């Protein structure tokens, strides 16, 4: 795993390294708004070191990502990768598989919003292979 | 209105100055996620210059604020003011009046999340007077 060349802005605590069952590389998820029945919304931050990415996964009610610093990728299954960076907002519809993470050279700071959690939060699937990731990292 | 002593981080475009019908002072709201029936969630950013604040208002399904830089205030009607700053997360329950804005000396960059918008988005009320604001700005 490469060292991050850029020092990214840190708004939230870095937290603990995320599980290798759901992330490849060094990703640091931090919960900011826990599940409840008033707001029906969870919010959190993930710092992805360069090369780190989530597994493929889906959300029963979809997901909104807000990129606060760095450069990375978001891919909805069957579509081309989107390059995401500071200021980007991307959405993934309900029950559609996607993955997101840092670029190979620059890390990524991203907020996630999962709305309507009365429908469910997340279903995790298999890792994004190096071949899948590197095809995108052209 | 005082000049901002601190240069705050800008993640999103500053946008146009918000209406004096809903803000006191110089506030710059920017919509990031528009209303739709898939996510039922709106997201936006507001940059408040020092001294600027929203009017009193309420949200039929509540609101979540995420502070990305600066220092400011959040007050739920009938409760003490909360000082909010970079990294703070605050919530206001459904149908409860509140206001938020910058401190007198330092501006505020804040994301807002309004969930469950099928219940409504916002009901605007009267301005926060200088007396109400300055009591808090002790």
Could you list some keywords that capture this structure?
7-stranded antiparallel beta sheet, homodimer, Jelly Rolls, mainly beta, 138 residues
Describe it.
The structure is a homodimer of 138-residue chains. With 138 residues, chain A is mainly beta. The first copy, chain A, has one domain: Jelly Rolls, CATH 2.60.120. In chain A, 5% of the residues lie in helices and 41% in strands. Chain A contains 1 helix and 11 strands. Chain A has one helix at residues 130-136, and strands at 23-24, 27-33, 42-48, 53-54, 57-58, 63-76, 82-85, 89-92, 98-102, 108-114, 123-124. In chain A, the strands form 3 sheets. In chain A, strands 2, 3, 6, 7, 8, 9 and 10 form a 7-stranded antiparallel beta sheet that branches. In chain A, strands 1-4 form a two-stranded antiparallel ribbon. The first copy, chain A, has a two-stranded antiparallel ribbon with strand order 5-11. Chain A starts with 22 loop residues before the first strand and ends with a helix. The model of chain A has no long low-confidence stretch (mean pLDDT 94). The A-B interface holds A 9, 11-13, 32-33, 38-41, 43, 61-62, 64, 66, 68-69, 86-87, 89, 91, 93-94, 111, 113, 115-116 and B 9, 11-13, 32-33, 38-41, 43, 61-62, 64, 66, 68-69, 86-87, 89, 91, 93-94, 111, 113, 115-116.
């Amino acid at each position: 795993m490469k060292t991050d060349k850029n020092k990214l802005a840190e708004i939230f605590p870095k937290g603990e390294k995320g599980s290798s069952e759901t992330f490849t590389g060094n990703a640091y998820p931090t919960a900011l708004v826990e599940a409840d029945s008033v707001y029906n919304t969870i919010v959190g931050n993930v710092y992805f070191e360069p090369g780190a990415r989530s597994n493929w996964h889906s959300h029963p009610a979809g997901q909104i990502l807000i990129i606060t610093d760095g450069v990375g990728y978001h891919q909805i299954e069957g579509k081309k990768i989107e390059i995401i960076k500071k200021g980007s907002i991307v959405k993934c519809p309900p029950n559609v598989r996607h993955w997101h993470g840092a670029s190979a050279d620059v890390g990524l700071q991203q907020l996630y919003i999962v709305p309507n959690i009365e429908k469910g939060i997340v279903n995790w699937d298999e890792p994004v292979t190096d071949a899948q990731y590197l095809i995108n990292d052209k």
